[in-house]
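Long-time lurker, first post. I've been practising inverse folding by hand and with some scripts of my own, and I keep getting stuck on stretches where the structure tokens seem ambiguous. Below is the full token string for one chain I'm working on. Before anyone asks, I'm not after the true native sequence, just a reasonable design that respects the backbone. If someone could post their per-position residues I'd love to compare against what I wrote down in my notebook.
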């Protein structure tokens, strides 16, 4: 059971509206945090607040609603809404340098949500571990995608190592929240 399930109405129609509202609100949170962006001169991938949003959505909404929220966010961006980092939009973003991270968001929300459903979000240390696992999914997915786009194995220098200090801050914030 997740936090969102506690308040879920028992009437089916109201429950669907409630779930839809959670998914829409969560996708808005991720889009808002995507606009917190630090551009790195040596990397095609910026540091953003999206990871924090993805981790929170997964932990609060659970695996299915968390993953659905991220998919809604991606569909909003693909359809042309300026929700990606730097107010970017369109399907080209998914095949660009940030595409691996964006696709990893879905898996990270699912994994984080699944661990939260098992009670990992109830204690600080296990919540920190849960958020670290979710972040690792995102970073590994992004680095794997960059390996196809960037020559000479520079993906770790451009897509993982610079993100570790910020990842620790976001993991800590997500754990506290």
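-- Answer (accepted) --
I ran through it position by position. Result:
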């Amino acid at each position: 059971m997740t936090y969102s399930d506690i308040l879920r109405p028992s009437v089916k129609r109201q429950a669907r509206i409630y779930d839809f509202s959670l998914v829409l609100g969560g996708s808005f949170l991720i889009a808002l945090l995507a606009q917190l962006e630090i551009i790195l001169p040596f990397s095609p991938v910026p540091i953003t607040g999206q990871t924090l949003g993805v981790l929170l959505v997964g932990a609060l909404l659970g695996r299915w609603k968390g993953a659905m929220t991220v998919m809604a966010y991606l569909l909003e961006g693909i359809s042309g809404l300026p929700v990606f980092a730097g107010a970017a939009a369109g399907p080209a973003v998914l095949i660009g340098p940030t595409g691996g991270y964006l696709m990893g968001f879905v898996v990270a929300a699912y994994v984080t949500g699944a661990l939260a459903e098992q009670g990992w979000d109830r204690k600080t240390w296990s919540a920190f571990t849960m958020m670290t696992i979710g972040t690792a999914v995102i970073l590994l997915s992004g680095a794997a995608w960059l390996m196809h786009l960037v020559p000479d194995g520079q993906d770790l220098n451009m897509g993982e190592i610079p993100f570790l200090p910020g990842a620790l801050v976001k993991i800590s914030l997500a754990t506290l929240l």
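A couple of notes from the structure itself: Strands lie at 37-38, 47-48. The helical segments are 3-6, 12-34, 50-78, 92-95, 99-117, 124-149, 155-159, 164-176. Happy to go over any region you disagree with.
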